[in-house]
Amino acid sequence: MARDYAVIPHAYLDEMAELNDAEFGALVRALLRYSRTGEPMVMDGNERFYIKRVMAEEDRHQRNYAELCERRSHAGQTAAMARWHGAGSEARGGANGYSPPRQPSRQLTVRTPDSTWMKDYD
Fold first, then answer.
1. Hey, what long-range contacts does 35-40 have (CB within 8 A, 24 or more apart)?
2. Kind and range of the H or E element at 79?
3. 3-class DSSP assignment, residue 13
4. What's the whole-number average pLDDT of the chain?
5. Which residues pair with 117 in a beta bridge?
6. Phi and psi for 7 in degrees, rounded to 5?
7. pLDDT in the model for residue 102
8. How far apart are CA 62 and CA 67, in angstroms?
């Protein structure tokens, strides 16, 4: 699944404070193009000093997103296989999936600094 966005961290505001609005806007526009196409950014203004940092950050976010998609896909395939092959029905409580309700957890008694007792309710 392809991402349809680029990550623009708040830290860019502080790191790139030397850029004026036009330069910062050009850098963000180039980042969006880079995120969509993967074509390296080429700029000739002051924003060129931030290109490597911005591209590296975007590459990192894209790798993390791809890994997340892969993990979710694998988990979905594993769950589908378990459903289709009936595995895990014993863990759900039997063939019809019924399992008795869980017992409520023990209530904890907490002592407050003013020596009153309070109960933590479920």
1. 35/3, 35/5, 35/6, 35/62
2. helix 51-85
3. helix
4. 80
5. 111
6. -90, 130
7. 72
8. 9
